[in-house]
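Q: Joint fold for the lines below.
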Amino acid sequence: MLKNTQLEDWDRENFFHPSTHLAEFARGNLAQRVITTASGCHIEDSAGNRLLDGFAGLYCVNVGYGRPEIADAIAAQARELAYYHAYVGHGTEASITLSKMILDRAPEGMSKVYFGLGGSDANETNVKLVWYYNNIRGLPEKKKIISRWRGYHGSGLMTGSLTGLEAFQKKFDLPLDRVLHTDAPYYFRRKDLDQSEADFVAQCVASLEELIAREGADTIAAFIGEPALGTGGLVPPPAGYWPAIQEVLDRHDILLIADEVVTGFGRLGSMFGSDHYGMRPDLITIAKGLTSAYAPLSGSIVGDKMWKVLEQGTDENGPIGHGWTYSAHPIGAAAGVANLKLIDELDLVSTAGKVGAYLKGALNDALGDHANVGDIRGEGLLCAVELVEDRDSRSFFDPKKGVGAAVNAALLSRGVISRAMPQGDILGFAPPFCLSESEADEIAGKLAEAVREVLG
Ligand code: PMP
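A: Joint structure:
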């Protein structure tokens, strides 16, 4: 192993880190952490720290680190057949098997899986498929896509436009046109504190209806949403939100894309968030939990209604002009097959539901009474603690104070990783599904210490 100082120098000199303050990094003001090994829910770095990973990397290492079953499947695939493409009807045992395993688990009415590499490219695929679909149907004006403020759908050109967070658009000349944003179903941040949850849902629905009326339903192709908001704040939807939205979309012939990059394969304690919340999507985006991040792989699951039109389109226009070199990469597919088998064998989906409920209970016990804790929320192993300046008036801290980031740092100094979500003082927890109850207690206990250190 290279010396730490050597690696740190090379890192600063050569490595363009994503989502990083480049100037502060160059000045040496950002901590550099070289991760060396990991097992279960813990990662280790080259300075000898062992950290409890309360965010499973970027909420993706769902089965936990160091699973030999997946490592062995990857190695065996690399030895047998490291690569062949999937164009013009080619496939491999791993990619064909995985497509069947995904459809066996998917919500009703799904027809085929297109494989990509990550969540962003899968959503780019989805947008192209939606446009293709309406062109084949003879509806060339019906192309706009509605997303929600605080939604996260990637950082490509179109997906960065769909993402409803300013940081991903600023100075990149985004959003592109054809993208519209509507309200986030974020009840805790409602304007009128006296508003009931049912009235808040009605308001979300009414503002969607207004947007559709203003733009014209004949110009709107699809609505994209995460079953539970992820990067925008880790917010499960209020009761009845999805059925009410679905009714509006159906009435206006607007497709639903369920972005299940985070929620797919068990994070909410159900195999898919769409089933959990009563969504009937036409397209489902999957990535992260598909391989538990042991290899990069994503997918677009295409529903029956769209599939029929796509087939018809190729009869009229020839082969579909969309594909990546690494679509259905056999190594990613082998990781996916081994990962989904492990999830079944260890019953990890229901485990995520149970451990998630335990973690939320532990967070409530540790912090429920703190004057600056405004909300403790979650579904399955997707939990958040939102800090406020004043609980009664639910006023928020000035973002410049960086309270969430300070608590996150205080927690890290105690050996636990959370994620300071990008918009608001929100500490996010989305650990691997193998989190034990004592690890959940450790997260809650140390978070309480960190909150007290920063806020008293
Ligand atoms: N959709 C959602 C809901 C996500 O959370 C993410 C990534 N955090 C993406 C899409 C983009 O995935 P990727 O970073 O793999 O491109």
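Q: Anything notable?
A: The radius of gyration is 22 Å. The pocket of 4'-deoxy-4'-aminopyridoxal-5'-phosphate is lined by residues 58, 118-120, 123, 152-154, 226, 230-231, 259, 261-262, 287 (CB under 6 Å).
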